[in-house]
Each structure stands twice: as C-alpha cells, then as structure tokens.
Amino acid sequence: MDDAGQQRERSALSSTSSIPSSSVTTHNPTVLFFGTSLTAGYGLQPEQAYPAVIEKKAAQAGFEITAVNAGLSGETSAGALRRIDWALKAPADVIVIETGANDALRGLSLEAARSNVEQIVVKAKQTHPDAKILLLEMLAPPNLGRSYTEGFRKIYSSVAKEQRVTLVPFFLEGVAGRPEMNQADGVHPNAAGARLVADNVWRVLKPIIAGLK
Length: 213
Hints:
This protein has helices at about 5-10, 35-40, 50-60, 75-85, 100-105, 110-125, 145-165, 190-210, and strands at about 30-35, 65-70, 95, 130-135, 165-170. By secondary structure, it is α/β, with parallel strands linked by helices. The protein has a five-stranded parallel sheet, with helices on both faces.
C-alpha cells in the first residue's frame, strides 16, 4: 500500500467507480466506498473488490444498490482528507469510510491520525447531511507496541461516538494475519479474503440499507 501504487490502483478501479458522475441516474441507493487499496481491491479484478461483492450480496438479499468504489492505493489519512472533497461531489445515500491502514504501517502519531479521521467524517456529514455514514475500524500491527496499538484502535470508536456515525468493528477480522486469505504480500486480501471483508461490512450495512426509504 505504498505511494508508488497509486497510479496502478487508479487503473484497477471499475468503470462504476468513476466519480463524480452526474450523468448517471438511478433510483437505487448509492453507497460510496471511500478508502485505500483495501477498498479499491489491489491485485484483484474490479468485480472481486469487496464493494462490488457487497453490491452482489445486496442484490441477492433483495436490495438493489449502486456501489461506487473510491479506493486509492497508498493513501494515508492525510491524503484521504485532501481527496475527500472530490469524492463527495458524487451523490451518496450511504458513505463507507475506510482509512488509516497506511498510517498504522508508518507509525503516524495518534493525534494526527485521529484528527484526519475525524475531519474526513465531518466533511462527509457536512456535504451529505442525509446520508448514513459508516466508519470502518482499523487496527495497527502489534510490533508498534501496546500503547500505540490500543490508542490507534480507540481512534475509531471515539470518532464514531462523538460524530454519531456507525462503527464497523475491525473489518479485516478473519483476514488479517491469515496467509490463505491474503495475496503474496501478506497485506492485501485475495479474492477469498475480499469476500470475508464484504461479509464483515455487510453485516452492519444490511440493516442500514433495509431502513432506507
């Protein structure tokens, strides 16, 4: 998820993920997935990325949604904060925010990471006041020490509570640290891992979609 992967990731995005797109009209709820390569589906086919898998799962459950994949490889929360205004030009009924993975890998200060995550959520609320917002919890690798890892995890629960948005518990649960669920780099989910990520997110997202009018 390094910065050099950003250009590669742009080409990996599916055609449905190009934003903004004012020419597309649909009555289906639009779910904007904003995040890093974990959202974009680095190393996978566009239809294997977890947002696309969720779109299929929703259809199978009787909910027609339009999933917009706005993931970008190598992006830190600071980069996401700079990019979020552009992403939010697209219409969205639900916004799923995934950020911080690259912050943890680089050991970014907890104060800076929290500030960035909070500002991203605030911007989403301000531009889309009627949208439902989900914040995906991310964990830091244990080699950074207990104090850092515990502090990093608290970022997400505290921001979600203070901003009154929905927290999705660690979305890589069952995937992180399992070789059979990841690509050769040990970081990015493979197709099976992406399906499990989709399950983790859909578990929280489904009742929200069901409640949309």
